[in-house]
From TrEMBL:
It comes from Pseudoxanthomonas composti. Its cofactor is a divalent metal cation. GO terms for molecular function: ATP binding; metal ion binding; NAD binding; NAD+ kinase activity. GO terms for cellular component: cytoplasm. GO terms for biological process: NAD+ metabolic process; NADP+ biosynthetic process. This is NAD kinase. NCBIfam families: PRK04761.1 (NF003406).
């Protein structure tokens, strides 16, 4: 079997840049569009950046942790990369698609592999309504904001906001309020992945709200619609002893 063509990408961190030089010297380097596999070197932020830039190519992605947080990455080792790629197990991620209407009348869109979060822009609490598949389920949520998370992203911001951890492949998404004041006892919901979620900002001029899809922020929003992508997927590769499904499961037993 011929050696796979690898596209190495690295964050600006010195450790990632050093690893890039060593791996390219041993394996060469290819453009992502010409590669068989993409290998980002960095943390989860750089992994998400890589998925946003190159996910549409449909190449499998094998990341190595050379950053602060590496939940979506494998451990970094300089040796044995070809053997690790040959035995790696795939995890298929399906991102969220977000459509936003802003106060200026503009409509923008973005993908989110972790979560879409709405947050108040000022000291004033956000006032939001929540529709699911066209039916209003929460007439007025008052708080810092709300988010929708994928299973892969459910262990990140969603979990820190006391949202549920979702098993990979469960075909669900998490709807989680952020520091809710009213309804006081509402803790969010687990939804079927094909649910269309629509947030409307009830007082956008006095209580402005921004929305962030992973790291892409849009400010002064009026309405945000989110649903799981129907045609976009990405395959992340993981070492068998450190696969993503087991990692997500283990997070539920971490104290």
């Amino acid at each position: 079997m011929s050696q796979p063509r690898i596209a190495f990408l690295a964050s600006p961190a010195p450790a990632a840049q050093q690893a890039l030089s060593e791996l390219v010297a041993e394996h060469g380097n290819h453009l992502p569009e010409d590669a068989d596999v993409i290998c980002p070197l960095g943390g989860d932020g750089f992994m998400l950046q890589t998925l946003h830039r190159h996910g549409a190519l449909g190449r499998p992605v094998y990341g190595m942790k050379l950053g602060t947080v590496g939940f979506l990455m494998n451990h970094h080792r300089g040796e044995g990369l070809l053997e690790r790629l040959a035995t790696a197990e795939p995890a298929t991620l399906r991102p969220l698609e977000m459509r936003v209407l802003t106060e200026s009348g503009a409509t923008t869109g973005s993908l989110a592999y972790n979560e879409v979060s709405l947050l108040r822009q000022t000291r004033q609490a956000a006032h939001l309504s929540i529709d699911l598949n066209g039916r209003t389920r929460v007439e007025e949520l008052i708080g810092d904001g709300v988010l929708v998370a994928t299973p892969a992203g459910s262990t990140a911001y969603n979990f820190s906001a006391h949202g549920p951890i979702l098993p990979l492949g469960s075909h669900t998404i998490a709807l989680t309020p952020i520091a809710p004041f009213r309804p006081r006892r509402w803790r969010g919901a687990i939804l079927k992945a094909d649910t269309e979620v629509c947030f409307k900002v009830l007082d956008p001029y006095k209580r402005p709200v921004s929305v962030t899809a992973d790291s892409h922020e849009t400010r002064n929003v009026l309405e945000v619609t989110i649903h799981e992508s129907r045609d976009r997927t990405v395959s992340l590769l993981f070492d068998p002893e450190h696969n993503l499904e087991e990692r997500i499961l283990s997070e539920q037993f971490t104290v």
